[in-house]
Design goal:
With about 270 residues, the protein is α/β, with parallel strands linked by helices. The protein has helices spanning about 15-30, 45-55, 65-70, 80-85, 100-115, 130-140, 155-165, 220-230, 240-255, 260-270, and strands at about 5-10, 30-40, 60, 75, 90, 95-100, 120-125, 145-150, 170, 180-185, 205-210, 235. A 6-stranded mixed β-sheet has the order 2-1-3-5-6-4, sandwiched between helices. Strand 11, helix 8 (about 220-230) and strand 12 form a beta-alpha-beta unit. The protein binds NADPH dihydro-nicotinamide-adenine-dinucleotide phosphate (NDP).
Amino acid sequence: MPDQYAVIGNPVDHSQSPLIHAAFARQTGEDLEYGRLLAPKDAFCASANDFRTRGGRGLNVTLPFKGAAFRYAAFLSERASAAQAVNTLKFERGVIFGDNTDGAGLVNDLTQNLGRVLSGQRILLLGAGGAARGVIEPLLQQQPAQLTLANRTPDKAQRLARSFGGALEAGDYAALAGRQFDVIVNATSASLAGELPPLPPGVFARGALAYDMMYGKAETPFLAFARSQGAARLADGLGMLVEQAVESFFVWRGLRPDGAAVLKQLRQLQNA
Ligand code: NDP
């Protein structure tokens, strides 16, 4: 029987991960199957245990279980510890290993697919939830000139910045007035509700890249605002989704598939 993997979440039927990992398996010739696992909101551990005891080799973890998966794993990668969230579980010889590939996914999409050098750049990260936390350490590793965190609830952003030893500054949106950034990443869930984080005008520097972690057919309010403000490049989070999957595949199989080729296929499907 092929090795079994799945994405666990609630809801999970919208997940594109099975499509992506099936494409990776074809590309690399790996013998695996990847499905969807809908877990009751109060039964993550029981569902993951059941999958594992049936011989499952690994899980991707999506909302709302990344925190539960962090507590479930017996061993954690450094990046999962920093993120305090797990999106990749690997089951091997009775051991539960937890990793977080979201940050690497974002950085690889920015640097490889979008060709942006992040070192020396002024980066602004919007939001202070799980997605923002997961990408801070990988962004800092790129040695930006500065990393600034802005959140609707500024206390939350300041607490988050302190947990990274003050390597980044944090505050509210009003404090951004009069400042400019080269890369602005929207890691809020505002786009899900069709809302725009309250960014002041003029925050996009000349040549700026605007990146929304959300993806979909329609342009998000954040990307529409960035366009109207003259941002030079706009990108949604589909590339991040594919690149985090590349990293998960590497954790499980020791091989790094070509994410760009699969991203191209997904874009064609999205635009069909
Ligand atoms: P959380 O619920 O943990 O955090 C939500 C954040 O958004 C909070 O900081 C919240 O601010 C802020 N927020 C919500 N609404 C607004 C608004 N109207 N204006 C300003 N700020 C707002 O969510 P996650 O961090 O888990 O996810 C964030 C987004 O990232 C989601 O859209 C998700 O789909 C996306 N994502 C994409 C991935 C990809 O692979 N492309 C991977 C992971 C996530 P406050 O603290 O004030 O409430």
